[in-house]
Amino acid sequence: MEQPIAVDHLTRSYGKQRGVIDLTFSVQEGEIFAFLGPNGAGKTTTIRQLMGFLRPTRGSARIFGLDCWMESARVKTKVGFLPADIHLYEQMSGAEFLNFAARFRNGEHARRRKMLVERLDLDLKQKIKHLSKGNRQKLGIIQALMHDAPLLILDEPSTGLDPLKQMDFLGLLREEQSRGKAIFLSSHLLSEVERIAQRIAIIRDGRLITVEEVARLKAKRERRMEMTLREPVAPERFSVLDGVRMISADPGGQHVTLAVRGELAQLLRTLSELPVEDLTFAPADLESIFLHYYSDVNAPSLQEGVAK
């Protein structure tokens, strides 16, 4: 079976304005793939090319082997799509809008639509103009998922949802993943991405900075460890360990703060030999990783040598 998404040296330029430059990545069946970057980084331009709304300047984007520009009509039958700026017809009710959206697809999938409406707790009788921002977002999510497409492309899908509905929505995505669906997710909610994505791509100034498994990225980043010892310990006990960097130690050597990178086995063996009274360990989170890649202007893009 062809890959759900295969992007090869995808480039879109707007004259002197930046678009996206030489993007290469893929999304596998049964994978949740997060696409991260602040506003203006190139996320929406990439998504529009995947959906066949923009023609690439160079390179290609394919969905299940179909060229996203040349075969865009067939591509759209394979995708459940939620744009960040979904247009809803204000005078329609929620039910009328979903009926309208269903006309563009093969079949209605009435049972699935009913399940989604119940899970997200949405009243379809109300006019869209009377819906809150969160309920409008629920309606957009339902129209993206109700056709049971094998690939979901979701741009900021949790916008406006309250925390409980965000959890329900993430549960839905996990269920879709368990059924073998591929999910391409663009989100500013890094805590959400961290809970659900297997891999992430970070884009900056139109170029990919990294494409990596979330677990591997977190393992590469420094984690902070603070400890209190019952008696002084020479700082050299820690500084000689691989992947361990001393941040601070009080003059008596009983309060120590370390930065730890990579495997913990050697450090844990050392700690087992020391009079540790208290230990606090803060693992790297996705926000710190993202800020590291995005704020470091000297960080190379993938095209400049960052390994996938």
From TrEMBL:
Domain ABC transporter intervals: 5-230
Record SMART domains: AAA
Keyword annotations of the record: ATP-binding, Nodulation, Nucleotide-binding, Transport
Gene3D superfamilies the record matches: P-loop containing nucleotide triphosphate hydrolases (3.40.50.300)
GO molecular function: ATP binding; ATP hydrolysis activity
Name of the protein: ABC transporter related protein
Protein family: Belongs to the ABC transporter superfamily.
